[in-house]
Amino acid sequence: MFFLKLSVSSIAMTAIAATSAVARDQVQVTGSSTVLPYATIVAEAFGENFDFPSPVVEGGGSGAGRKKLCEGVGENTVDIANSSSRISQSDIDLCATNGVTEIMEVRFGYDGIVFASAAAGPEFALTPADIYNALAASVAKDGAIAANAATTWADVNASLPAQDILAFVPGTKHGTREVFDTKVIIQGCKDSGAYDLFLASAEGADDGEKEDAAEASCMELRTDGRSVDIDGDYTETLARLDADPTAVGVFGLSFYQNNTDKLRVATMNGVVPSTESIASGEYPVSRPLFFYVKKAHIGVIPGLKEYIEFFVSDDMAGPDGPLAEYGLVSDPELAATQAMVAAETPMGPLE
Amino acid sequence: MTDTATPTPTESLLRPSRLMSRRNAAERRFRLYGITAIAISLLVLAIMLFTILRDGVSAFRQTSVTFPVVLTAEALDPSGSLDAAAMAKVTTIGYGKVIDSSFLAFLQAEGLAVDGLSDKDARAILSKEAAGQLRAQVLAEPALVGQTITMTIWTNARIDGYFKGRVTMESAERDGNVSPEQLQLADLLAENGALSRPFNWQFLTGPDASDQRPEAAGLGISIIGSIFMMIIVALLCVPIGVAASIYLEEFAPKNRWTDLIEVNISNLAAVPSIVYGILGLAVFINFAGFPQSSSLVGALVLTLMTLPTIIIATRSAIRAVPPSIRDAALGIGASKMQTVFHHVLPLAMPGILTGAILGLATALGETAPLLLIGMVAFVDNYPSLSAAGALDPATALPVQVYGWAQRSDPAFIERSSGAIIVLLIFLVIMNAAAILLRRRFERRW
Fold it and tell me: What angle separates helix A2-19 from helix B220-246, to the nearest 10 degrees?
């Protein structure tokens, strides 16, 4: 009957927990797995230096994080959603229906996306057009759209290594894929002339619809196994590169910087990706990183305001801070962000 | 005279017929298949254990450097008051400088210098975790200010990797996080005797660390979380599961309803575990309002998941008790309840315990349902060790394995494998307990 007594007491404990509103004393953060390492670095330093407990930081993806943020106001909802892409109107609408009317948008830096191959392999000097011509389903050939027949990188551009085309690109559920699509594939589509051909044959009621249709045609990647979607994270891409040393993979800049001994980074339009070249805008493939704060929780959850102020402080997000050391491209307008956070200005409508 | 030639027998035990030898050959082949199957599974197990041990054993030792740290009063207690609130204003950045200058002074005093190595790079071989540890130590004992203490500080993960063979001079050439000069300094420190590789208790007791400090990452919080969950799961699952099984097996009438319940229990045992996570999120967090990431919610979800397994195991254990025991007890006048509690249950106990422990072992290794209730997270603060600690955020052992395997720094691969070893040890202990209990209390009829 030992078990019976114990279980009765544990059920009683559960009941007490359920009835008494449990005051949460730590900040809850969720969202993008790209922002996750930055957020954990800040959370750890925050716990060391403040009297508040360290925030609990979850991954799980930008979209899922923003949905959780918009679930409502109250201690059993999260305080901050990390996001590697900007919040969408549908998220804002969802938030509004659930009573989350004031959201603070904090942009704390930029993240670069790099193409890298095994360290033992040859150098790659890529352009968006090369990548488009290597990976798209159909490309411009002699002034007409044709199915992509390139088998080696040299077929695409004679200056590239004569190596079979095999690329590991982020799967469609990743925020990284969006940047890859817009900054590399669509750019390459336009540069190679395929976009104009698509636009000429596109169907649609007006120019806007035609452009959308042309972009959708651009974003179709080849399905013959030369472009492989990776739904896992960068560690999976790295493992696939180990197994297939002739392949090219897409990584975040910070991931590459932690694995420079295994990876050889490709230049884009002749620019080597680095925090400097991304900050100056020379390296084209980058995106802003955000976190979204539920303003109603400031002053309710202890340490929330202090955490976001600490996150955007020069000690953390500044150009010499630990986040930059890890691979974050510091935001040149960080001072404006700091002022915005200090004033607790909620974001306006999306333009 | 009858001329009857003895017919030569077409079959005998000594000369098997074709049918006989075919049957014997079939049996030999079958045995061979069996042995091959076992050999393949053993081989796969051996490969798995080998890779885990190869990658993970090194996580239990951590390269550290020992040197005197001068806790200068002007840096750590600018007001000179030894007042805790005033001293807390000095951040880890201030403590980092104290450690750095002490380390550089130590290098100079010992005459350890490498050409082309800047002071900044020299002190970068120390773990960033040290400043936080020193700050906690000094704030706990302000009298230390002004003294010189001997500290053993971890080196960063790349230097540690150099002594574990993960980093080489060639890879350091290409590596942005470590330079060959830093490795040379590490070699000098090793010759000097300042470097050691003690058993890393922090790996078992410390909290998780961020991507910049793989050397400091530990399993403490996840072990506490897993233990909390196992206790609550056992407290809820065993009584509920045993009560349900006894009722269904001994008291319930056999009708359409009990059949329906039976079928559904078997169905629930086969439901993918992530489904319980979705249920847990909806019921325990969104409806009941339990705190996210807490081991209580994790335990409730795992309880739901384990319950069908335990009910099925318990029912078969009760069914294995021979009816003659029940008949005898009832025959001398025991009530149905006395029969069950005095005779059937004690005899079924070894089977029930085995089933319960195996169910708990499955729950211990489960990650998927925890993903949805916020336990797959970076948690840096220990949950309180009282019963209320079940409401504090925590992680679990398998979650830590999963989390570390995703990190970008290669040192986390080692730690992930190390965490698998710890998890396997827990599982082996639980399974051994199950076998032991069965041996100890098993009755044969």
Answer: 120
Mean pLDDT of A239-249: 89
A145-151 CB contacts, 8 Å cutoff, 24+ apart? A145/A194, A145/A197, A145/A198, A145/A201, A148/A222, A151/A226
pLDDT band at B7 (very low <50, low <70, confident <90, very high): low
Please tell me the distance from the alpha carbon of residue A100 to that of residue A86, in angstroms, as a whole number: 17
Q: Which of B303, B299, B297 is nearest to B283 (CA)?
A: B297
For A304, the token pair is: 């929330």
Looking up tokens 């599982």 gives B427
B387 in A contact zone (CB under 8 Å): yes
User: Over the stretch B388-438, which tens digit does the pLDDT of each residue have?
Assistant: 888 899 999 999 999 999 888 889 999 999 999 999 999 999 999 888 888
pTM: 0.86
Give the bridge partners for A269, in sequence order: none
Please tell me the distance from the alpha carbon of residue A68 to that of residue A49, in angstroms, as a whole number: 28
Residues from chain A contacting residue B374 (CB–CB below 8 Å):
28, 30, 56, 58
Q: Do A258 and B290 touch (CB under 8 A)?
A: no
Q: What is the ipTM of this complex?
A: 0.84
Cross-chain Cβ contact B381/A26 below 8 Å: yes
Q: Compute the count of residue pairs across chains A and B with CB atoms less than 8 Å apart.
A: 140
Task: For residue B44, give the amino acid letter.
Answer: V
> Does the beta carbon of B48 lie under 8 angstroms from any beta carbon of chain A?
no
Residue A274 at interface with chain B, using a CB cutoff of 8 Å: no
What is the 3 state secondary structure string of chain A?
A: CHHHHHHHHHHHHHHHHHHCCCCCCCCEEEECCCCHHHHHHHHHHHHHHCCCCCCEEEEECHHHHHHHHCCCCCCCCCCEEEECCCCCHHHHHHHHHCCCCCEEEEEEEEEEEEEEEECCCCCCEECHHHHHHHHECEEEECCEEEECCCCEHHHHCCCCCCCECCEEEECCCCHHHHHHHHHHHHHHHHHCCHHHHHHHHCCCCCHHHHHHHHHHHHCCECCCCCEEEECCCHHHHHHHHHHCCCCEEEEEHHHHHHCCCCEEECEECCECCCHHHHHCCCCCCEEEEEEEEEHHHECCECCHHHHHHHHHCHHHHCCCCHHHHHCCEECCCHHHHHHHHHHCCCCCCCC
The Cα–Cα gap between A17 and A39 comes to 30
Chain B residue with the nearest C-alpha to that of A47: B380
| Contact predicate A215/A231, CB 8 Å | no
Q: Comparing C-alpha atoms, which of B389, B238, B372 is closest to residue A17? A: B389
Q: What's the gap in Å between the CA of A84 and the closest CA on chain B? A: 17
Alpha-carbon torsion angle B305, B310, B316, B322, nearest 10 = -160
Please give the domain boundaries of chain A with CATH numbers for all domains.
Answer: 24-110+287-343 (3.40.190.10), 122-244 (3.40.190)
Q: Identify which of B368, B243, B221 has the alpha carbon closest to the alpha carbon of residue B294.
A: B221
